[in-house]
Automatic annotation (TrEMBL):
The chain crosses the membrane at residues 12-28, 34-53, 74-91, 97-117. It comes from Bacillus timonensis. This is ATP synthase subunit I. Keywords: Cell membrane, Membrane, Transmembrane, Transmembrane helix. InterPro entries: ATP_synth_I, ATP_synth_I_Bacilli. The keyword Protein transport does not apply. The keyword Membrane applies. The lineage of its organism: Bacteria, Bacillati, Bacillota, Bacilli, Bacillales. One of its GO terms (cellular component) is plasma membrane.
Length: 122
């Protein structure tokens, strides 16, 4: 469990670095809607990562106590994605849909890339 919480902390740190880069891109380039879409999607992805980490702790605790867990939060993760899409559809002049979708997948990309780097490091 300790290794997993360390990994989630590392993932959050990488995502915050990416968010800082996106904010700089929004501020200094002409692609404002693309970077706003990336920011919105990445914030949604970060929220999904937080809920995934919380549900993982709950699942581990329940397993150690011999209880069952009702859900791992799939519906709440889908709701975050749906909310992001609704925001983009409401303000299409400010947000780019494709970059928002890429932003929503940021946490999964970070997890996969970190996995490969950790395997190479060991």
């Amino acid at each position: 469990m300790q290794d997993l919480s360390i990994a989630f902390t590392r993932y959050r740190k990488y995502i915050f670095y990416l968010l800082a880069i996106y904010v700089l891109g929004w501020g200094f380039t002409a692609y404002k809607s693309v970077f706003l879409g990336l920011i919105l999607g990445t914030l949604g992805s970060l929220w999904i990562l937080f809920t995934l980490a919380r549900k993982n702790k709950q699942f581990t605790k329940a397993y150690e106590e011999g209880r069952t867990v009702r859900s791992l939060g799939t519906m709440s993760r889908m709701a975050v994605a749906g909310l992001a899409v609704l925001i983009v559809m409401e303000y299409p002049e400010n947000f780019h849909l494709g970059s928002m979708i890429i932003g929503l997948m940021t946490a999964y990309f970070v997890i996969m890339i970190d996995f490969f780097f950790q395997k190479l490091h060991k």
